[in-house]
Structure formats: structure tokens, C-alpha cells
Amino acid sequence: MTLNLGVLISGRGTNLRAILVAAAERRLDARIALVLSNRPDAGGLEVATRHGAPTQVLPHQGYASRAAYDGALVEALRARAVDTVALAGFDRLLSGVLLKAFPGRVVNIHPALLPAFPGLHAQRQALDYGVRLTGATVHFVDEEVDHGPIIAQAVVPVRDDDTEETLAERILAEEHRIYPAALQLLASGRLRLEGRRVVGGLP
Ligand code: GRF
After folding, report:
1. If you ran DSSP here, which 8-state letter would residue 158 be given?
2. Is 147 a catalytic residue?
3. Cis previous bond, 40, omega within 30
4. Lowest CB count within 10 Å: 98, 125, 169, 170, which one?
């Protein structure tokens, strides 16, 4: 099934670019129906426009609650007939409102091997802890931060001389590889959820 994909961003949009390129090259059976940013200055908006994808800015300020903002997100996504939502550096927590509107169809990418190092600054957390291996995780989103069932992971070594920046860059290269691949698994309909386990995911 061709995904009608909504991509939520807040920043520079390199994962968004990887998704757009994969779709253009037919490695990903998806139409990017909407790129939505909560921040008007997100660099990813230009990335989307360069690739001919529709964009919308929906600032999160001024809503009475997280649920109210999520209601506006759902409306914007539905207006473009979005059936699958990919978070790509979106810096807002989601409420159940969005998750209930797209059950089992909201995914996220995180720059660590979950369940290790959820939340902000995952690369710094990995360096501070002293792990020798870290990586990237694509997972279904639930109401806890960086927590839902895992679809794909990739392992990245930590080098002695790594800084947060060099490690982030090495992880990012893997993010760009596994995010489109995980979305393609979703498009192919091959994934199945058994409890917390995703059957048919990538190693
Ligand atoms: C990525 O590291 C992603 O894993 C995290 O936010 C960052 C977004 O980067 N959730 P970009 O905007 O896709 O370049």
C-alpha cells in the first residue's frame, strides 16, 4: 500500500530528506502528503519545498493544552488524507489525541539503542555513560517518551576520541538508512505486533 505520509519536524530535516529521497527513488512506496513543522524557522521546511512536498507551519504556542494542539495537528494531517505519521526530529510530546487518530501508524526515530538513553541528548548520554556501542532506533510511538515497540535498530561504535558531534554524525548516517527502510516495511504490510514485539522488523 502506498503510504500517505505526514512528516512532523522541528529542525533541519535530514531524516526528512532521507525519506523524500527514498520515496523519489522508489525504495519507499510513499507519497509525502504533508511536512508539518511547529517551528517557522525549521530548515526542514526548505528541504520539503525543494523536493516538491507540501508544507505547513503549526506553531504550538497559544493552545490551551497539549491535547488541543494535537487536535489541530490531527485536523491538518486529515485534511491531506495522511494515513501514517513519521516523527523526524519533532520536539513536542504527543498526547493520546494524535495516537488515537492514527492507531499503530505513528513512528519515531531516536538516536540511541532504546531502551537505553531515551529523551534529549541521547548521544551525550551514551558518551557520559561510557558505552562502547550505541545506535539508532525506529519505533512505534506510544504515550511514553521514546518507548513504543521497536521496528528497526542499527548499531554504531563509540570511539575513544568521539565528541557529541562526531558520534551524532555517525549515528545520523544509520538513521538515514533505517528510517526509510522501516517505513517501507510498514508500506509492505509485513509488520505485525505481538504484545510489545514487532514481528517482521529489521534486525
Ligand atoms: C535525529 O537525531 C533524530 O533521531 C532525533 O532528532 C534528530 C532530527 O534530526 N529524533 P534531523 O532534523 O532529521 O536532521
Report:
1. P
2. no
3. no
4. 169
38 located within any domain:
yes
Query: Alpha-carbon Rg of the chain, whole angstroms?
Result: 16
Angle between helices 164-188 and 122-129 (to 10 degrees): 120
Total structural domains within the chain? 1
CA distance 29 to 62: 36
Which run of H or of E encompasses 134? strand 133-140
* 59, three cell numbers: 506553531
186 lies in some domain = yes
Which CATH number is 21's domain given? Answer: 3.40.50.170
Testing ligand 1's pocket by substitution, the residue of 36, 109, 134 carrying the most ligand atoms inside 8 A of its CB is: 109
CB contact at 8 A, 32 and 7: yes
pTM: 0.97
Q: Whose CA is nearest to atom 6 of ligand 1?
A: 89
Q: How far apart are CA 142 and CA 96, in angstroms?
A: 8
Instruction: Give a yes or no: residue 202 inside a domain.
Output: no
Q: Dig out the grid coordinates for 81 from the structure.
A: 488524507
The helix (run of H) or strand (run of E) holding residue 187 is: helix 164-188
Ordered mean pLDDT values, 10 residues apiece, the chain (203 residues):
97 98 98 98 98 98 96 98 98 94 96 98 98 98 94 98 98 98 96 92 84
Domain, as residue range, for 75: 3-108+139-147+174-192
Look up residue 41 and give its three cell numbers. Answer: 524557522
Residue whose CA is closest, atom 2 of ligand 1? 111
Joined together, the cell numbers standing for residue 23 give: 520515496
